[in-house]
C-alpha cells in the first residue's frame, strides 16, 4: 500500500519527494517498494555500531528483593550498591522486582496490538498538544527536530490520574496495572536512595510530593530499518524526573554513555533497566548523575520498549536538598525550577540541565 497522507502534526524538516506528507515509520516501512530511507530520516551524525561496546559484566545489577529481605545487613549492603551505581553509572539493571513476567509480557503484547491498529484508529490520538493525556505520534517531542527519527510512540499520562485507552480491548487495564506496579518499585528504590543520601526513607517522597507525582507511560516502536547505519531511533538525551524504568521486547537497541564511551545494554530476562534522571541529579546536588542514553535501530526486527518516567508533582519547585548544600564547601549546583516549567523547556529541545547548572566557582 502507498504511505498514508495524514499529517501527524509536528514541526518537521522538508519532506522527501516520495513521501508527500509526514507519516508514521511503521506505515513507511510497510509501503510498496520500500528499500531505502528517505533523506529526511538520514542522521548526519549517526553513531556507528563500532562506537559502542558490550561490557555486560560491568553494568551494575541490583537485587530488589534484598531491600525487603528482613536482614538489616543485606538491606544496608544493597543500599550501598544502589548508591554506588547512581554515582558511578546513573544506571542499573533491577532483578527480582516482583512485577510478574506475565504482566510485563502482556503490556508489551498490548503495545504491539496498539501499533498494529489501523492508521485511522491510531490517528484519533494524534495531537499537537504535548500535554494531551493520551497521544500517538512519530519522531521525537521537540520543536527543533532537524531530521525525522525512526520511532513511533504512544504516551499516556498515568499519574496522578490514569487516563484510559479505549483500544485495543483490555489494553488500558493492563497498562494501568503495569504502571501501578512500576510506581511501587520506583517508590521502594527512592526510599533506598533517600537513605543512601543520609535521610529518612520518606524524604524524597515528601520533598517531591510523590503522592501527586507525575508518571508517564511511553511506548516506543522501532520498525526494521533498511539502512540502520543512517537512521536513529532516539538521539542522545537525559530524562526529566527522578527515575525511569524501562523494559523491551528482547530486541536490543538501548545504548548508555559511561566514562565518555557508548555501551550496548543487553538486559537479563524479566529485568527493569533503571536510569537516574535529571531531577534526582538536581535533588542530590550533583552526587548522582542523570545518564545520557539513546536508541539505535536494526534491519531485522521490530523493537518495542516501554519507558516509565517517575517524577515530582508538576507544581513542585525542585532544587538541591538544603541538607546537601554548604555555601562554602558544597554550594548549590543548580537553579531551582518548577518541574512543569523544566519539562516545557525540554520539549522545546533545549539542554535543560545545562541551562540550570550553576558554574563552579
From TrEMBL:
UniProt GO MF annotations: metal ion binding; oxidoreductase activity, acting on paired donors, with incorporation or reduction of molecular oxygen
Disordered, as annotated region: 1-20
Fe2OG dioxygenase domain: residues covered: 212-312
Key words, A-Z: Iron, Metal-binding, Oxidoreductase
InterPro entries in the cross-refs: DIOX_N (IPR026992), IPNS-like_FE2OG_OXY (IPR044861), IPNS-like_sf (IPR027443), Oxoglu/Fe-dep_dioxygenase_dom (IPR005123), Plant_2OG-oxidoreductases (IPR050295)
PROSITE patterns: FE2OG_OXY
Domain of life: Eukaryota
NAD keyword on record: no
UniProt cross-references to Pfam families, sorted A to Z: 2OG-FeII_Oxy, DIOX_N
Homology family: Belongs to the iron/ascorbate-dependent oxidoreductase family.
Entry protein name: Fe2OG dioxygenase domain-containing protein
Source organism (scientific name): Actinidia rufa
Upper lineage: Eukaryota, Viridiplantae, Streptophyta, Embryophyta, Tracheophyta
Amino acid at each position: 500500500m502507498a504511505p498514508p497522507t495524514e499529517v501527524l502534526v509536528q514541526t518537521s524538516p522538508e519532506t522527501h519527494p516520495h513521501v508527500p506528507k509526514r507519516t508514521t515509520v511503521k506505515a513507511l516501512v510497510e509501503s510498496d517498494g520500500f528499500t531505502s530511507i528517505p533523506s529526511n530520516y538520514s542522521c548526519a551524525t549517526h553513531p556507528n555500531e563500532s562506537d559502542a561496546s558490550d561490557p555486560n559484566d560491568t553494568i551494575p545489577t541490583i537485587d530488589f528483593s534484598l531491600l525487603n529481605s528482613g536482614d538489616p545487613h543485606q538491606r544496608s549492603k544493597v543500599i550501598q550498591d544502589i548508591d554506588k551505581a547512581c554515582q558511578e553509572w546513573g544506571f542499573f539493571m533491577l532483578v527480582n522486582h516482583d512485577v510478574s513476567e506475565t504482566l510485563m509480557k502482556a503490556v508489551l503484547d498490548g503495545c504491539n496490538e496498539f501499533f498494529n491498529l489501523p492508521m485511522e484508529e491510531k490517528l484519533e490520538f494524534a495531537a499537537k498538544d504535548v500535554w494531551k493525556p493520551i497521544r500517538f505520534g512519530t519522531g521525537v517531542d521537540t520543536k527543533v527536530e532537524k531530521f525525522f527519527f525512526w520511532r513511533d510512540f504512544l504516551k499516556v499520562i498515568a499519574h496522578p490520574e490514569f487516563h484510559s485507552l479505549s483500544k485495543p480491548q483490555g489494553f488500558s487495564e493492563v497498562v494501568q496495572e503495569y504502571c501501578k506496579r512500576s510506581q511501587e518499585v520506583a517508590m521502594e528504590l527512592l526510599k533506598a536512595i533517600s537513605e543512601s543520601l543520609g535521610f529518612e526513607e520518606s524524604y524524597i517522597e515528601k520533598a517531591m510530593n510523590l503522592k501527586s507525582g507525575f508518571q508517564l507511560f511511553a511506548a516506543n516502536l522501532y520498525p526494521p530499518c533498511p539502512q540502520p547505519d543512517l537512521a536513529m531511533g532516539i538521539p542522545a538525551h537525559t530524562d526529566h524526573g527522578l527515575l525511569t524504568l524501562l523494559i523491551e521486547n528482547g530486541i536490543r537497541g538501548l545504548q548508555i554513555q559511561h566514562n565518555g564511551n557508548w555501551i550496548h545494554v543487553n538486559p537479563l530476562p524479566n529485568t527493569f533497566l533503571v536510569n537516574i534522571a535529571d531531577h534526582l541529579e538536581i535533588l542530590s546536588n550533583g552526587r548522582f548523575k542523570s545518564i545520557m542514553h539513546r536508541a539505535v535501530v536494526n534491519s531485522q526486527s521490530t523493537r518495542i520498549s516501554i519507558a516509565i518516567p517517575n517524577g515530582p508533582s508538576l507544581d513542585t519547585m525542585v532544587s538541591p536538598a538544603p541538607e546537601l548544600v554548604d555555601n562554602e564547601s558544597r554550594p548549590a549546583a543548580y537553579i531551582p525550577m518548577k518541574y512543569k516549567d523544566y519539562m516545557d523547556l525540554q520539549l522545546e529541545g533545549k539542554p535543560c540541565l545545562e541551562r540550570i547548572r550553576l558554574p563552579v566557582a
